[in-house]
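Hello, quick one for you while I still have it in my head. No rush at all, and the record is pasted right below.
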Amino acid sequence: MRILKISLPVIALFILFSCSEPEQQKDNRTIFSYNEMAGVTSLDPAAAISFENIWPVNQVFNGLVQMDDQLNVIPCIARKFSISDDGLVYTFHLRSDVYFQDNQCFEGTRGRRVVSKDFVYSFNRLYDSKVSSASTLLNNIDRSEKTEYKGFQSVNDSTLVIKLKEPFSAFLSILTMKFFSVIPFEAIEFYKQDFRRNPVGTGPFMYKIWEEGTKLILVKNPNYFERDEKGVRLPYLDAVSISFVKDRETAFMELLNGKFDMLSGADAFNINEVLDKEGDLRDIYTNKFYLQKQTYLKTDYIGILIDEKIESVRNSPLRLKSIRKAINYAFDRDKMIKYLRNNIGIPAHAGFIPKGMKSYDPAKVKGYTYNPDFAMELLKDAGYPDGKGLPEITLHTTDNIASKEQVEFIQSELAKCKINLQISIEKKSVLTQAVSNCEYEMFKKSWVGDYADEENFMTLFYSKNFSPQGVNYFHYKNEAFDEAFEKAQRETNETIKTELYQKMDRMIIDDAPVIPLFYDQVIRLVNHKIKGLGNNSMNLLNLKTVVKQN
């Protein structure tokens, strides 16, 4: 094994693992190393709200179900599951060979078998706002007198029943989120508030060392329950090493030097240096690492507040659908993605729902293309021929460099169509608060799918989700949309459900409360020694099937 430049406690860790084993086995140990620029704040799955936390949590914990790389919901700790005909009762039958990782919180330090009561405990814990922000995901759990106030019920050690208030077709997808991982009550009682840095799960890797801001080490769980198609117990790797280098140039050099096996994200390295304008890896790097690109359930957009009950909207030209559509037609999305993002991302020529979802189909949901002549016609229809008399419009965005470049490009494109766009650059926290409070008429944001169901994207336009209580920042209201949205939530037929979401997406395009910019992509630079690293539209890192060649 090559020598790693790591801290003394980490060196001690590997000496500890190796001291009682044959020399040949020591030399064959494999460690997967990656960098996380943002840092990790918690290893408690109840706090798995950001990717930097979700990735290590996914290695340590499991849930009832999981998502494969094609975004299908498949069994995990639940060996099988069923849904009642009325869509209100979910029954899960658990595997009998799943054990919590060995830990001092257990009697004799040996991990015990997972039973259904562990899921009841884990899920009920999410209702505590001091523990998790996931409580809204449980709004549809039936904890009424009808269920004896128990939405989660342990029938016996191997059978768990979950009861809903009303049918919700996205529920299984929601259960794949790391919030719904199983944890042992013994660990919470033993570690209390310090569970965030002493996680105990059932996953392929176990927590070992965490030097916050420096290094996080996870080691192989020798008792992990999943096996490959040949019956070999997973995982193949011996350990996972996560670094927290904030400077992307330094991190890139570590990748070149072989210290890191992967860098992930367009912000993790200089895309102009590494990729050509077509988005392909430059020849000088092809012998160093390979490029992974995958659609990502993320839509970047410009939102427009259209609620005329708000005084500022009544005085804004953005209240007019023709103006909103004119802006959509007035800039070239293809050029923006090619020259500002090196073709990382897909120009949004369909609806708001991104590529990677079942309902994404540009042939059935036709979005906006670059058509400045038609934009000028729409301005004329709105009463502003050649832009005369059109008031100045302000677009609010964050101080992120990439975002600033994109809105400046849009500004220059709109100017050619006589639309005067001014840009206001603000801190992300300021923008988030102002948008939620309906203080801005136009703003740039993005939406990432927390789970693989179109409901997660269309909920932004549901009238009962008006901000600041909900995520409908546009205050968009359309009775036909609401009716289709509610029907889709209850629909179990995937074909009908897909058609409903396409119908909703067409309404969004026609009413134009939003300007879709692009559907993002997952991008990774990976060492050639790494094999079996899957990629998926959720950007979830799965390391249990990864092989690292010497």
Observations:
- The CA atoms of residues 251 and 271 lie 14 Å apart.
